[in-house]
Each structure stands twice: as C-alpha cells, then as structure tokens.
Amino acid sequence: MLPQSQLFFLLIALLSFTSILGSFEGLDKKFLPRVHVLNDLPPNSEPLNVLCKSRNTYIGERDLNVGDDFTWNAKENALYYCRAFWVRFFASWHAVQPKRDNGKAAVFWLVNEHGFFLSWDNTTWVKKSVWETE
Ligand SMILES: *[C@@H]1O[C@H](CO)[C@@H](O)[C@H](O)[C@H]1NC(C)=O
What is the predicted pLDDT for the residue at 22? Predict the structure, then answer.
C-alpha cells in the first residue's frame, strides 16, 4: 500500500498527462485546413457539380454556379477527395493531402475551363490537374 502523499502525486501526474494529451489533440485540430472549391468558370457556364469526401466523412455534393465557393473544415488528418463534372468533362483530385497541406490554415481550389489550381493564400495559384473527357 502506497503512502497517501505518493498516491496524491500519482493522481496529479496522471491528470496532467491526460491534459497534455488533450492539448496536443487540440493543437492538431487547429492546424487542419478550411477547404474552398471556387467556381471560376466563364460567365454563364453550366453549373459545376462537385462531390467531396474523406474515407470516413461525406462532405457533400453541390451544383456550383460561377463565383460560388464550396467550403468546409477538415475535421481529421486525412486525405479528402473531390470529383467534379462539368458539361462533358470529368475530374477528380485530392482536395486535402495531409503531407502537402500540413500546417496550412486553408486550401483553396480554383476550378475553371483550364483545370484545377491550388493555393494556400487565395492569391498564388499552381495548376495541379486538368479536365478529362471520355
Ligand atoms: C478569395 O479571393 C477572392 C478574390 O479576391 C475573394 O472574392 C474571396 O472572398 C476570397 N475568399 C476567401 C475565403 O478569402
């Protein structure tokens, strides 16, 4: 049987350990990005149909008009996948890739007739993918 003071010490150690774990978890969550998929197609284009999900979470499917922003918060450190249809074109891409997007507050996707452009600041864009046809 342990003396009472040692029991007390053990209890305190256990409590601080769980609170440290808890704060790490919180830290992780804070660094999960907000995702934006922006329809930047030419004026009066047909709507852009986009569906996004991770392995565990269904985000949703939207018909985006020109200028619309389909946005959500990533809730897990996982791959988020989207696919898009626009007239006779099809595309799929990784909306969030944990390694690539690590530590970013936001991931922006600009979708237009030329393809799919990635930005972390909504200003500088890099072309990542193009439309496919059957
Ligand atoms: C991204 O930039 C566009 C164009 O400047 C602006 O209209 C839009 O509000 C911005 N979105 C965010 C989430 O900052």
Answer: 52
Ligand 1 contacts CB of residue 34 (under 6 A): no
> Which residue CA neighbors atom 11 of ligand 1 most closely?
122
Domain 32-129 has CATH 2.60.40.10: yes
Q: What is the pLDDT of residue 26?
A: 47
Q: Which residues contact 66 (CB under 8 A, 6 or more apart)?
A: 39, 40, 41, 42, 43, 44, 45
Query: Ligand 1: does its nearest atom lie under 6 Å from the Cβ of 122?
Result: yes
Phi, psi (degrees; rounded to nearest 5) at 87: 40, -115
The two structure tokens encoding residue 116? 């799919």
pTM of the predicted structure, to 2 decimals: 0.80
